[in-house]
Amino acid sequence: MEQAMTIRQMCEEFKITPRTLRFYEAKELLLPTRDGQKRLYGKRDCVRLKLILRGKRFGFSLEEIRQLLDLYYMDDSQEIQLRETFALAQKHLTDMQEQRAELNDAITELKAQMDWGAARLAKLEP
Question: Model confidence over 54-65: pLDDT tens digits?
Fold first, then answer.
């Protein structure tokens, strides 16, 4: 990865749209430098974007992600950030496991209904 990246390079690297990148910038999650009209994203922005995308994938809200990113600069060797991230991740993991259980139940029920429907259709065929 180069020292500074353009919007196009960031979008290609992280497989996102320019609109998404500008949205994160508008929310002050990314702070690129400016060279005239050109935005240049440094290593810090790349790391933050990677964490933003990972957080979104895990179901974290943008506000939760912002709070965790802001904890990075506290003078405690990131202990608070790690503790807060771990606690939040534990909550999201529990939520995801509950959602998976509900989804598994729904899949089982839907399959049973489809089996019933298939059996009824088979009886109706001449």
Answer: 999 999 999 999
Identify the pLDDT of residue 20. Answer: 96
Cα(35)–Cα(3) distance, integer angstroms? 14
Domain membership of residue 82 as a residue range: 7-124
Max CA separation in the chain (angstroms): 78
Residue 1 lies in a domain: no
Using CA atoms, how far apart are residues 109 and 111, in angstroms rounded to an integer? 5
The CATH number given to whatever domain includes residue 73 is 1.10.1660.10
Span 2-35, pLDDT tens digits:
589 999 999 999 999 999 999 999 999 999 999 8
Q: What SS3 state is found at 123?
A: helix
Quote the number of domains for the chain: 1
